[in-house]
Amino acid sequence: MILLSPDRRSRLTPLLHAYWRFSRGMTLGVRGCVIDEAGRVLLVRHSYTPGWHFPGGGVEVGQTMKAALADELKQEANVELAGEPRLVGLYLNSRASQRDHVALYRVDAWRQPAPFVPTREILEAGFFALEALPEDTTRGTRERIGEMFAGREQSEIW
Fold it and tell me: CA-CA distance, 31 to 106, in Å (whole number)?
């Protein structure tokens, strides 16, 4: 069962953020902008937070960012790295917390051994043309797409 509040965030999200704030100090996450042969980007829709996002998640203690990226892409969209991802930037994700940082990678070389199957965490995953993103694609995701593909100035804030 998925517990969502009216804004579609899990009721547990504020508690988890409070826990992370005191147990981890600073948090680091990774996201991947996976691009297919048609120039479309991979986005996922979570069960616990609204909108469409780049796939990604937290970097665990003792884990490299690249290993975290590979794990998250596999878990969230059944995508495997087939080459070196390129670091696009590091961002402060102040909407989550003043301690949260995100590393964004561009992924051009990848494979998907089998189609994505929805899970409890990821309800949908799909490739979208830059000019036809889902209406509820998050602000941060849209801004990163604008920076990477439309030549907008890169921000330090997610």
Answer: 9
pTM: 0.84
Which tens digit of pLDDT belongs to each residue from 10-22?
677 777 766 756 6
Dihedral pair phi/psi, residue 20, rounded to 5°: -60, -40
Q: Give domain 25-149's CATH superfamily.
A: Nucleoside Triphosphate Pyrophosphohydrolase (3.90.79.10)
Residue 63 binned pLDDT confidence (cut-offs 50, 70, 90): very high
Q: Which of 48, 65, 64 is nearest to 104 (CA)?
A: 65
Q: Could you tell me the two tokens for 58?
A: 């937290």
* Domain definitions of the chain by residue range: 25-149
